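Long-time lurker. I teach an intro course on protein structure, and each term I like to show students one example going from raw sequence to a predicted 3D structure in token notation. This year I'd like something fresh instead of my usual example. Would anyone be willing to generate the tokens for the chain below so I can use it in lecture? Attribution to the forum is fine with me.
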Amino acid sequence: MLLMAGDIAASARTRKGKLRPSCVQASFSSPCMSRVFSVTTEGMTEELAQAVESGNLDKKTADKLARLTPESYCTHKSWGFGLVTEWNLPIGQVTIDFKTKKSHPMQAVYAAETLTPIPDDHILAQRETNPESVRELAKSDSSALVKKVLADFGGKATSDQIGCALSPGVFDAAGFKRWWDSARKKLKSDGRFGMPAKKTDPYVLLETPVNSGTRLLDGFRNARHTRDQVVALEEISKSLDDLTGSQDELQAVITLIEEAAQRARRISPAAAIEILIARDDLMQKFPQLQGGAESPTIANIIASEPGKLGQILESIPGSKEKRVLEALEPAYGEEWGDKAIALLPSAGARLISDICRLFERHNRKEQFQATVEKWISERSISSEMLIWLCKERDKRFPALFNAELLAAVFSALEADLLAEKRTSRLKDLLIDDGELVGDLLIGASRDVVRDSMRKLMLTPAIEDLSKRSLMARIVKLYPDTQSMITGAHQEDEKADNLVVSWASLEKRKAELDNLITKEIPQNLRDINIAKEQGDLRENAGFKAAKEHQRVLQRRRAEMEHDLVIARGTNFENPSTATVSIGTIVSLKGEDGSKETFTILGAWDSAPDLAIVSYKAGVGQALLGAAKGTTVELPAENGTRKATVESIVAFTDINLLTSKIHIIPAGMAIAG
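-- Reply from a regular --
Happy to contribute to a lecture. Here you go:
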């Protein structure tokens, strides 16, 4: 039980007048405690009257101090709650016990200006002097406690103000949140309280209690703006049981709801849909209610706004998205599947899951799977869809949960690097889920696993430390891939190695980096722009951009593979006993003509400078030939013969960087 006015035990003070909170006790039957000082008929104590008469205090200050007599409570904006313990008016001083400032002296005039008197039964006083009684009331009758708080705050208070009144002291922060979540639900069905339309609005203590159902309906009837109407209907939807017995009122409200939806659909289709969802909830709860013959439906609205379906779903709460999806078939007929598929690229996990369930309910799961599989192969699938698929594991689509999905994850991570709204959710999932990479590679062939590891090593979207962690997980499942980390390559890999000049290697890295950071992102932007132009089936721009995407992805795969097996060299100390990589060969043809070829790395080719790759036809024909040997070289019409006259080492390394492998300005060299 809370203290009423004046119910404070006299033992609240020590002999020296200091506050001892542990000694403050509730007195539930004692009369109002008498003050130490008698009060004049004008409400001012004799001591104050004398101080005014003597000129020590002015009348205004004395009137304020009359409410700050010893053993009364007060608050200060900086020092908080306190107990007035003593007056010494002849010297103009008041002593206060604050929690952090015991026996704190204040000038009487300053105290009158800065202290706010608190009645003994005020919630702020009760919180400090009698917290156990407040806790008991909070536990037994939360609505009664809220009523007291509102009354003490002038009849209204926001949830933040209520929280400040009870925490700390009665509750800690977590305890108050738990209690308040429960208390608010009870307030809604208690007719003594006016509920706030939004979080910053106050709870109001009503002079005359109203029926909770009537209050809810009045909240909608009195709402003037569409958003306020939506909020009011949201409250109605949460409290349908409170409306039992209000059918006559409800039928009139149904008409108002339909009129509001009709007005809102022109300006805000999403708000109109939310209004209609509330109407449908009411009509489902109370089947006797009837809608108007010309009343709008959710299907009507989305059918009339085919280009705004994505915007509508973005504007309504996630809990209501399913209701819009259910209206796709009545709105679009057989085309509903295409409309739902078009929502997936920009959908979040919840909407993706709801769309998948929609296809399952209509026995069209194969259409959904085929679309997702196509996007995975094209590397155009969104990060959100990949997150959803990875979390689903192989529950719904086991055929899609494989190394190809992992490759799509790497591509999406690189696209996320350049997105306007960057997100690390997909990368965090890949790294934090210790079994994901291994699960995606279960059953994969050795070549597929090694290819996945190459992609992982080359992607710029993952930091080196995280790469090593992911590689270690793969090696744990496939120990024979350890060489991918240690560099101890097996003999069968040596045959696949490419010998390349350092200059050509640096240029190829720069080209791959340019492909990943500029060309592919620009292609993604082109695809998104083309999507906005309408029907994808007849969209030439979209088809061209998608075809270019396939070309870019193929180029990328080839470049990544080549860089993994490339071995850089400056062609130092080549053997000149026979033609080898890094040598200059002089030849004499059967007709006496002479020519010279420089045999260099796989990516070194400059016909004007007679530089050929050892992988080219001429290079392959000359490799291993000794001085004096006759070789057959490829010609326009078959082959031609020539004799090796001399073999010398190639030394002009600067020629490669200055004439052949010049990196264009603006093309960054990949690190």
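Some talking points for your students: The two ends are 73 Å apart (CA to CA). The first strand starts at residue 73 and ends at 76.
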